Amino acid sequence: MRKLRVLPYVLRILWEADRWSLCVLLTANIAACVLPLVCSRLIAAIVSLFSGGAPDAALIFRTLSLYVGLHLLTQVLSPVQEYVHQRYLDRIGAACDTLLYEKIASFPGIECFEDAVFHNRLVRARDGGGMRFLSVIDMFCAILSGLITITLSACYLIQIQWFIAVIALTALLPGTIYNFWAAYHRQDLYRSQSESSRKLKHYGALFTDPAYAREMRVLRLGSFVLDKYRTLFNTEFRRINRIRTHQSVIGIVCTFVSGLLGGAALFLYIYRAVTHTADAGSVVLYISLLPQFVNGVRAVINGVVQLKNNSYYVRNFVDFLECEPSPRPIPTHTLSEPIRSICFEGVSFRYPHSGQYALRDVSFHAASPGLIAIVGENGSGKSTLVKLLLSLFTAESGNILVNGCDICEFDLKSYHARLSAVFQSPARFSFTIAENIRIADVTRAITDEEIRAACEVADAAEPVEKMPDGYNSILGKQFSGGVEVSDGQWQKLSLARALCSNADMLVFDEASADLDPKAEFNFYQRIRTYSHDKLTFYITHRLSGTVDADLILVMDHGRLVQAGTHRELMAREGKYRELYSMQASGYESR
């Protein structure tokens, strides 16, 4: 996205998120920078009234009353700004998250999640939303406030004595130039240590993340990792400290020059007051305005630098919202009838940014009802075939036909509504058990009776009913009151979810991998019973579960090398008989 298009987009999001908060925040920031300057001018006026001979009591009290009122308003503005700021932050955070989640949900397949480039863009986009958007407004307000402060302060100072004001303002130049220079170099320094910071965080995570706890102790890695941490920290500390020392020396010189010129200006103001060529109020006004002028300059400097830095992150967010997923053919109609057949015709596929084919020229035909087993060694293309079957990826070449029609012709949501899948590592939603099963079909109300019946069939009912909250128990330890269950129990609950879907086609991707032999045997028995009138595909490494399959697809290095029933494949030489005989001999040797 071009730079000129980012700011209007951000402003539109900020306006739509909460226009009331935006207007109040801008108004409050302008008032917060103007009121202190006016108060300083009133204090100077009061001092001048006292030093000008017989004071006018009525005028003094009127001026003092105005000062007190404005000062009270200044104090009240602070909590108002904080309240509006936090309220606005919540609104913007929710708006950005919604836009991001809507964009991700709009991607029909999962090609993007297999793409490291996309993943990096997603991570950067997450860093560019929420607080970054509000920071754009904060920095804009800081720049605006700084410019107002600088302008009003300079005008007041020039009104007092223009040539002394010129000296005072010139005194700020060395410090201002240094602050700009240092601010930009701080960003470069921050970026230069980003990778080493990630490494240090990773070393820290090795001690605190439960995923590393076992290996850290069994392999006695404590001292080893600590040495890596200390070495990297000391190296980075020496490098960064050299840069900081260089910047500090330059800063000392610049601020020393600024201090000399500022002191000279103050000396001249006081000299004029002593010699009665200027009133005491002018000295008071100078002393109070100069720090505000300096703060205004700093606000502009920091605002410009931070706005530039935030724009980089925000641009990542906006660019992500404008990116498009991998192109897919436009669907022409909805799949409204049951899935009766699946046919692969010369299907080939490569993952994004990969030169090697994961599938090459795969062809088969499967009809409903039917139990289709997919077998092969690791990396043979089994899971890739299932991903294409589920239309999570689009084939690079060849055709996938559903009921004789190209799968790309169907609306993807209507196709997914006709099927259900259980994976080896199912997504662990931190919902209640009942909710985890009801998401089988969010378009209809699945009853409690259906949930219990599905859990009975999936052999998941007994452990669930023993839990304190039964089917209302929250799964996972992420939230209070949640319960953790085994991998095998998760798979049984995933099977129960599939049973509640009333799908025409079922897909099991190594769904029995975490089950013990007895549970696995029962698992396949339940699949056979439930799917007697459906088209069912399942991947398995345990070939004892393929004996009763209507069709076995044998994959090897991305190719379909054999297809047939168990009896047919065992009757001839080939990969299937080799794998089956190896497993059988392994069991017999024990």
Folded structure, characterized:
The mean pLDDT is 80. The radius of gyration is 36 Å and the shape is elongated. Helix 4 (116-127) runs antiparallel to helix 11 (280-322) and helix 8 (194-208) crosses helix 10. It has helices at residues 3-17, 19-51, 57-105, 116-127, 131-160, 162-170, 172-192, 194-208, 210-218, 222-274, 280-322, 382-389, 412-416, 433-438, 448-457, 461-465, 487-499, 517-530, 566-570, 575-588, and strands at residues 341-349, 359-367, 370-376, 397-402, 405-406, 419-423, 505-509, 535-539, 551-556, 559-564. It contains 20 helices and ten strands. The chain is α/β, with parallel strands linked by helices and 590 residues long. Helix content is 63%, strand content 10%. The relative contact order is 0.09.
Shape: elongated
The secondary structure category is alpha/beta
Strand order of the largest sheet: 6-7-8-3-9-10
Largest sheet: 6 strands, mixed
Radius of gyration, CA atoms, in whole angstroms = 36 Å
Runs in which pLDDT lies below 50 for 5 or more consecutive residues are: none
Mean pLDDT equals: 80
User: Distance between termini?
Assistant: 64 Å
